[in-house]
Specification:
About 30% of the residues lie in helices and about 20% in strands. By secondary structure, it is of the alpha/beta class. Helix 3 packs across helix 7. The N and C termini lie far apart (about 60 Å).
Length: about 220
């Protein structure tokens, strides 16, 4: 077995990994132009709305709205779907706290489903194991860029009359059977926090305009 570099072996790479987040010069210049314009908020500027339109097209949906962060995007999704006190929502047992706290803040009960040992994602079988008459929906987290096996999850949800929220915080650009993540459930939430694939703010994606309005008003 080869020695590790720390023990005097040959290093795998000579240059250190670049810092993250990393911004190219064109991104920095674009930000400076926006700041110099004095039109830096959503209503006076145009960057926010352009970003919404471009990201919705990227995901393959009709609508998107930029929010403060991915946590707020999840909370807005549940408001849009009518989730309320006493409702149970099935969430992954391995995820960021917001996947469960968004349910608690609406007065509901997050129910943890086990995850697949390989993908670390929930499956239709693990969801079925914790389903109860109080279950109203499923939050499917695409962990570390690996999409959940969505077809069985969606089929189960439809058969039980449940809605599905896709938590795509770590999966920008991921594809499941030719479909972008975020385009399959009823609503999706993306995160653009400092440690995410793209860094800026939060975002909620909706299929129907009515869902978009309910979650942002």
């Amino acid at each position: 077995m080869n020695k590790l570099a720390i023990d005097g072996g040959h290093p795998v790479r000579k240059n250190p990994f670049p810092p993250w987040p990393h911004y190219e010069e064109d991104e920095i210049s674009s930000t400076m132009l926006t700041l110099k314009s004095g039109r830096v908020n959503y209503w006076t500027g145009q960057e926010g709305r352009q970003f919404e339109d471009e990201f919705a097209a990227f995901v393959g949906t009709n609508y998107a709205v930029a929010l403060m962060n991915g946590t707020v995007a999840l909370e807005a999704a549940l408001i849009a779907l009518g989730m309320g006190p006493g409702d149970e929502v099935i969430v992954a047992s391995r995820t960021f706290i917001a996947s469960a706290s968004c349910v608690l803040i609406r007065g509901g009960r997050p129910v943890m489903a086990d995850v697949d040992p390989v993908s670390q994602n929930i499956t239709a079988d693990t969801v079925l194991a914790v389903l109860t008459p109080m279950t109203r929906g499923i939050i499917a987290v695409h962990l570390a860029g690996w999409p959940c096996d969505m077809d069985p999850i969606l089929a189960l949800a439809r058969s039980k009359g449940l809605w599905v929220v896709e938590d795509c915080a770590q999966a920008h650009g991921a594809v499941y059977k030719g479909r972008p993540v975020g385009s399959m459930g009823d609503v999706a939430a993306f995160s653009f926090c400092q440690d995410k694939i793209i860094t800026t703010g939060g975002e909620k994606r909706a299929k129907e305009k009515s869902d978009l309005k309910r979650g942002t008003t």
